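Margin note from the TA: students keep mixing up input and output lines. Inputs are the sequences; the output is the structure of the whole complex. Example:
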Amino acid sequence: MMRRFLLALLLIASAAPAFAVNPDEMLKDPALESRARAISAELRCMVCQNQSIDDSNAELAKDLRLLVRKRITDGDSDQQVMSYIVSRYGEFVLLKPRFEVGTIALWLSPVLLFATGISLLATLFFRKDAPRAVNLLSPEERKRLNQLLDGPDC
Amino acid sequence: MIIEIGHYALILALATAIIVSLVPLIGARRVDQAMMDVGPIGSVVLFALVAFSFGVLTYAHVVSDFSVKNVWENSHSLMPLIYKYSGVWGNHEGSMMLWLLILALFSALVAVFGRNLPETLKANVLSVQAWISVAFILFILLTSNPFARLDPAPAEGKDLNPILQDIGLAIHPPLLYLGYVGFSVCFSFAVAALIEGRIDAAWARWVRPWTLAAWTFLTLGIAMGSYWAYYELGWGGWWFWDPVENASFMPWLAGTALLHSALVMEKREALKIWTVLLAILTFSLSLMGTFLVRSGVLTSVHAFASDPSRGVFILCILLLFIGGALSLFAFRAPRLTAGGLFAPISREGALVVNNLILTVACGTVLTGTLYPLVLETLTNDKISVGPPFFNMTFGLLMAPLLVIVPFGPLLAWKRGDLLGALQRLYAVAALAFVAAVLFFYLQHGGPVMSVLGLAAGLFLVLGAIADLWYRAGIGKQPLGIAWRRLKGLPRSAFGTALAHAGLGISVLGIVAVSTFQTEHVLQMKQGEVTDAGGYTLRFDGMKKATGPNYTEDRGHFTIARGGVEVADVWSAKRIYTAGQMPTTEAGILTFGASQLYVSLGDPTDDGGIVVRIWWKPYILCIWGGALVMAFGGFVSLSDRRLRVGAPRRKAKALQPVMEPAE
């Protein structure tokens, strides 16, 4: 399946190198167009390697761009456009996966890593057996030190 | 015949590597000087053999010997000479040869410059390096032999991938590998220390120059790769969070952390266990990056390298080395004594926060890169993790780090004075903020939040200057004394300041370009005019042209400002004749640190052509900052305190009688 997609892409690419976002695709209303661009940047070109449909010149990316623009002009909200595209193409199309059962570990990983690091540090600094951070001199020690420092050089 | 000699040299190299991987190690156990001496000699011989073998492969490419399969697959007789050279590593087999060559180079450098290392440590380090060499020579000989022949020899080669026919390929991989593979030395030092079960501040002192060198090259390599992608891929992006980019970025993050934790270990003997672990992890990430790229488990623009059958072999190497090293670590680490203590607010404390954030950021990038793969294996669900995810998580994690960087050098070791540092920096912070607001106002447009980003970048740059300023005592001391103090500062102080300022410059570039860049997509006919970034572009028409191994349609643009012509540029769409592969050659014009980026699209029915023009303000700061960082790395490396063995040489010089040469 994937291979056939890639082959198709190759054929298209070698026949006529198309281009990301062509002027004829763009919406007249700049506000709507900029919404379309923002959405496009979050959608994956399914036949490319790690490109958004906004950057890709594949035919499928163009179809998706036009689809996004059609939904927007039909009055969908950004969220609705996204849901519609996902319902047709699956979660794979989202470059920023949604927070769901399958992606919990992904989204929580920075937090978990950070928490682990902090707790490790906490144990380092607040170990019972460790002297509290840097030991300060006791008053007696300070007095003794001053005596030594002030004492005659020998 | 010469090809077979090169092949044979590689097999001899394998034999040498096996000897070096065992004999010095046993020698170190028995404290047998003769056996340990095999290490340095063997490492130099190994390098010579690998270099010869690599030279033969290069020769085959340069003379276009198509009887060699590797040359036939990746070269063409009409290719310009420089690409015949760089084409050696523009393919899987050759790039593994380059990997090996640099690995052997580093081993030889340790052998030559490590004269003052304790004999047993040096022997162990060289043995561990040789283990890695054995693994990779075996990999090359068994799965990726570049010396395989074809009979009968084809008359013409299949050409190098056009995207790789660029000066970028000549520079980017060697720099990247010098970084990637340079961390192998840190790994070997860590494993050697674990084998010996002894580790101290001196160890950190020996490891730090290698870390610094590897880090510096990796910085250059990543920056170079990013710029290459920017001008070659033709859609103006400079970082894609592509798995392969991540593969090089993760060792960089870990290496940056290592650089800082090794500093703590050297100065204060703290964070020992962590530093050793980090040294292992950094190179493990390099190895994993190699695996990800070579095995093809993650397809990406570096696809020239993918072949699943090789993946298994590298996976074994990966498991063996990472697993082995981590097991050794788990076994030995508890025996390492804890080091010096410090208060949370201190230079050490700041560096610990640095390590925390960099490690978490690295872990996040790792999770994001591997998550789709793992999820698909476990549940068959296919998801994508792309730039929006990385920008968000990575950005949020790094933001606090940018703010604390200027504080680090101002805090004292052991117990720092945060209030004092704040007093010294609040003027700098205020200045940075005002300058950011001014800058934002002058550029008009963009989200207001970006002021904070600009301020963070400026704070880094100004903070780095402030650090040198206070160290020299400018303002407090008479100017003459301050000047002398400034000159007397160790080079590493300048290195630190440069690296931190470079980071600031990069941040400025990133924020400026993402906030203020403008994009213009339009159809143009000959003679039509459009505006971008305050410049006027006139499209003068198309022309056909032929290069040595391509034909192209190029469009000419004249750029004017205020009615005066200031520049002109060609932008082209190229077809490489051998493979009929199209590429875009963007026209790029530099104005100060900003660039106009002109890219051609499809011709339209009415005789025009689609043109994409970007105005990229201050984009050169992104890579300029990286250059400054790398320059800081070199300045630090030139610090005599860091030069390997400098202390010992000084000690020798103090002795009245010359010691006999070793």
